[in-house]
Amino acid sequence: NADAAMYHAKESGRNNYQFYTADMNARASEILLVESQLRRALERDEFVLHYQPQVDMRSGRLVGVEALIRWQHPERGLVGPNQFIPIAEERGLIAAIGNWALREACRQNKAWQRAGLPAIEVAVNLSALQFHHQDIANFIAAQLAEFELDACHLCLEVTESIIMEDAESTVSTMSVLKQMGLRLAIDDFGTGYSSLSYLKRFKADKLKIDRSFVADVPGDSDDSAITRAVISLARNLNLQVIAEGVETAAQWQFLQSEGCDEVQGYLISRPLPAAELGLRLAAGEWLGREILA
Ligand code: C2E
Ligand code: MG
Ligand code: MG
Ligand code: MG
């Protein structure tokens, strides 16, 4: 397989080129295979969204969920987005898949509301191609109208690389989306290279501290300093701030003492299928006593 070929190439040293070529071919045919399976998956409706809770640190209440796509592959089982989103982007399928996710998240959120559950915000991840190469505002307006969902219950997550790919057009698209009443979050904040001067102009509502920083707080002093700085930046710009990838009580305590608004991570819950999320929404319980104590 491809990894083994790569390993041998590194080990053998001399015949590198040959092994590298074999690896490239393996990768190219894997991409073609996945591409054709992705097209089929769209037709056969093989994608699902799982929803990961986001809780307010002060009240302990669930305030939103992030919709995360998975692929129910007929042979491979449940496949995570890192395995197919990059290929979908490369092969021009991301608009179809991403728009499906956006639409499904709107439909599901309204279904929870119709079932009498407390209204929450659903956050959806966007790819650069969705943001820059289609009329995203019109597409979203059509979904909101069809499902009669209030714009304030939909949050769009964009990354710094989306923003910097075309900063001026992002500023104008974002202001249209804001006028529609949508919520905007900057995902994986700190891992890209966005200009701080744009932060003010983007009219984002929220910064999401990337989990690569959160992972080693409070033990690592550099990551702790970065996390503290992002929280204080967000506060001074009047943005909400949420920490991603919170797994331990020690991380929770650090974030709480630094004034972080919200958290998302395995400590609270893994991403859940819609039905399970609905049950937990109905029960209204999110945090174990050991976390809040
Ligand atoms: P992301 O938007 O930064 O999503 C957070 C990722 O961190 C998710 O991985 C989530 O399952 C994972 N995570 C959450 N809490 C923890 C934790 O405590 N520990 C650890 N180790 N991981 C945690 P997932 O679901 O595999 O998604 C990966 C990425 O795929 C997402 O990163 C997002 O960039 C992309 N993605 C997911 N759904 C969509 C979609 O509908 N459209 C697009 N364009 N991209 C998507
Ligand atoms: Mg995200
Ligand atoms: Mg993220
Ligand atoms: Mg990410």
Automatic annotation (TrEMBL):
Keyword Membrane belongs to the record: yes
UniProt keyword annotations, A-Z: Membrane, Transmembrane, Transmembrane helix
Annotated EAL domain residues: 31-285
Protein known as: EAL domain-containing protein
